[in-house]
Amino acid sequence: MHAYLVYVRPLLEYNLVVWSPDTVKDIAAIESVQRRFIKRLPGLRDYSYQDRLHCLKLQSLEQRRLCGAIYKILFGIVDVQLGKFLIIMVI
Predict the structure, then answer these.
(1) With b meaning 16 or more CB within 10 Å and e meaning fewer, what string describes 60-86?
(2) What confidence tens digit (pLDDT) does each residue in 1-21 have?
(3) Were both Cys, which of 21, 32, 75, 84 would link to 26 (CB 3.0–4.6 Å)?
């Protein structure tokens, strides 16, 4: 598992911020690399993809990309007008 985290995942995430796959086809193509890799780990072949991620305490690559984008927005690393994306309700 360490080999995946050190050698494979950085290659998959490299420049995702610039490229930012948004079509289902592109997302599935990138996700399939992680799916195939963790399916080959001993003892995880019979589990579903979500169960394998849970057992290994990993997120899908799509979830990691979205969390990274949200982090950058919340901490002001990127300039986004939140009013265009969020509806703020005052109670």
Answers:
(1) bbeebbeeebeeeeeeeeeeeeeeeee
(2) 787 788 777 877 776 655 667
(3) 21
Residue 63: pLDDT above 90?
Answer: no
The amino acid at residue 38 is I
Distance CA 15, CA 21 (A): 10
Q: DSSP for 37-69?
A: HHHTSTT-TTS-HHHHHHHHT---HHHHHHHHH
Given a contact cutoff of 8 angstroms between Cβ atoms, the answer to whether 56 and 1 are in contact is yes
Q: Give the angle subtended at the CA of 75 by the CAs of 63 and 78, to the nearest 5°.
A: 80
Residue 17: per-residue pLDDT? 55
